[in-house]
Write a structure and sequence with these properties.
This protein is of the alpha+beta class. It has ten helices and 15 strands.
Length: 368
């Protein structure tokens, strides 16, 4: 455990008179609480937090999720060793009962911390399991070794594939750097890119706009049929409840999500959940899939809750409550009422951040 004197890289955590958290509630720390995932976790718990004390971290001060926490901490970094040191200091100060990653970079950081700090309980596995979510080539190789359906993936430097194709960073998230390659010249050009991977484009090639008179202000590539399975690896390594769904996307974000009774998709998801549990993962897991026209294939793995968490909760899959109760060993989050809802439409919500709260968060390093 780090003493307050050890927190020299974040002196705001040692300010005298700082609020002392409650002792009795189950203490949940959500890293990256201002992210889309963090917001979804908070939404899923709305109205059911009497038995919880929710703590958050954020490297931005404009996210409304920060001010929905019982206590929040500002981090000056968002990844790397400096960020890991900040998170470790916050954990030492707040003593959470469980830590939940809210962003992709948090997964590896928490996995490293969990290996160094035996008392830390976090919804992650070890670093060898965490790499399956961070490295898209490792995801592919793992799936092939387990005999699981997966989109073919190779390093761009290993040579071209037949277009249409997709090139994306080997390490990365949020669709940043993803490009569609429509011809051989484009594919050959990216074969010089280090740490890039190539995958076939699943589904029809996009209809390119006529740019002879200029580019349209808004244009997007509509993806093929997409779906997935959200599941949970319990603390003892067993596979918990899961939920199969399909989605549509607009501008890279989920626009609509609905529950499905699809034996093939469910079986694929269960196979991945068992495999990553055996590999040492503990916590939420998302198997994102695409349909080739003849079968479901895994496109990527995510070791966290997702932007669709609140929607699935509304459809009756209480993924956050189930996970927290599993780590607590008791029902600290009450069950939601049964629902007949089987489809959810995602729409942006209007939230307000008070300037005084934002300024206080930035100047003090914590809130309230």
């Amino acid at each position: 455990m780090l003493a307050c004197a050890d927190l020299t890289h974040h002196p705001a955590l040692c300010v005298m008179g700082m609020p002392t958290p409650h002792v009795n509630p189950f203490r949940v720390l959500i890293t990256g609480v201002g992210s889309l995932v963090g917001t979804g976790i908070l939404d899923a718990l709305e109205g059911r937090r009497d038995g919880l004390f929710v703590i958050g971290t954020s490297f931005g001060a404009d996210a409304p999720g920060v001010y929905r926490c019982d206590q929040a901490f500002f981090t000056r970094h968002s990844e790397g060793e400096d960020f890991e040191a900040e998170v470790e200091a916050i954990i030492a100060r707040t003593q959470p009962d469980v830590v939940i990653p809210g962003r992709d970079p948090d997964i590896t950081v928490l996995a490293r911390l969990a290996e160094r700090l035996p008392a830390l309980r976090a919804m992650v596995g070890g670093t060898s399991a965490a790499v399956l979510f961070a490295d898209k080539l490792a995801t592919f190789e793992f799936a092939r070794s387990e005999g699981l359906p997966v989109v073919a993936t190779r390093l761009a430097t290993d040579g071209p594939i037949t277009p249409p194709a997709i090139v994306k960073p080997r390490f990365g998230s949020g669709s940043v750097g993803v490009r569609i390659l429509l011809n051989r010249a484009q594919v050959e050009a990216v074969c010089q890119e280090e740490d890039a991977i190539l995958q076939p484009l699943i589904g029809p090639a996009p209809q390119m706009p006529d740019v002879t008179v200029g580019w349209p202000l808004f244009w997007q590539c509509l993806p093929a049929r997409q779906g997935g399975v959200q599941g949970l690896i319990l603390p003892d390594g067993s596979v918990g409840p899961s939920f199969a769904f399909e989605v549509t996307h607009e501008a890279g974000k989920v626009a609509r999500q609905w529950a499905v009774e699809d034996d093939e998709l469910t079986t694929l998801g269960q196979g991945y959940l068992r495999a990553i549990g055996s590999a040492g993962w503990r916590g939420p897991a998302n198997i994102a899939c695409v349909h080739s026209g003849s079968e479901w294939l895994c496109l990527e793995l995510n070791g966290r809750f997702t932007g669709g968490t609140a929607a699935r909760t509304a459809m009756g899959y209480d993924e956050v409550g189930i996970a927290i109760n599993a780590w607590a060993g008791e029902d600290v989050v009450p069950a939601r009422a049964p629902t007949m809802v089987r489809e959810a439409v995602m729409q942006p919500a209007v939230s307000v951040v008070a300037a005084a709260d934002r300024d206080s968060f930035l100047s003090q390093g914590f809130w309230p």
